[in-house]
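Milestone M4 deliverable, item 7.
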Amino acid sequence: MDLTGWLLRRAVPCAFVITAIGGTGARLAVERHLRERGWRQALAPAEADLLVVCGHPCAELSRTVDRVWAQLPGPRARARVGVPEEARRVLDAAHTDLIDVAAQRRDADERDRAARERAEAGESEDMPGGLPMADRGEDRDGLKLDRLRLTLGPALPDWPAGLSLRAVIQGDVVQEAEVALIGARDRTSSFWGPRPGAEASGHPWAAATAALDSAQRLLSVAGWPAAALSGRRLRDALLDPDPGSGDRADLRRWLRAARRSRLLRWSLNGLGVVDDRAPVELRGDAADRYSRWLDTAQEGAGEPGGRAAPPVTSRAETAHAALELLPSLVVGQEVAATRLIVASLDPDTGSVGAHIPERNS
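Output delivered:
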């Protein structure tokens, strides 16, 4: 018996998902199929054996995808889902590649050969993740500490599509930050907004579903994976034409649990405070924005008790404002808090086109 093949056929795939701008629909389909199959989603390339790219990546994002692919240990397989309808077929094909023993052995031999060639050529190894060497600079206490340039995104789990946050950090505190969009195009549109030629504004449950999607992504970043997975299932249920009564009851229970977590509220309080000059959807701290998403999900799904106000600004305007504010919100924050701040803003990068935020000095 081929033990390698036996193990491959019984292993549960673990997928690392990267989303290009405009690939939200493909991401939702991929996440749904992964959940329904019982496959896991990886938090880092090192724990994944399946790389899934959602949407149509540009040349720069494709280079990032190639770097992530090089970090996946074998056995491994990769797939690209351009549109939602392709998700099932593409994931089936990727799984077939993953359990193909001969193909996996060829891939391992090729990687070994490439590593030997680099060693024989005397090429120096890059630092982990391609990070540059640190320099020195004064921190807020007047001490000389290492300053390291770090780029967050666009290949991060539960991260806005195409967002690249380029930061200078000392220790784990962000000292400088600037934002760029990878793969932004002039003609892009929000998955949650109106479709070209359509009279209605997107899906009938668009506002509630978008809010649930943002909330579950923040829960995942905050370290509550069980609640995030339940939120993802409820989000998928709302995407169906007619959510059932059982789904509504589950939504009520999930909303109660999501509101009652004191630990979550404590971890979000005071993070990323936005004043009243910004769009209403962004005002307050991370906890306020999270609460508004829960209200929107409750109200938009037809559940009583929601306190969501109608949107004052469009998704594009809100995303523009979030991208402009982001650098100032993360300076002085730890990297972990930065992830939470970005998740609480969750800018809809598909709606903003080729917008390039102003560089903050």
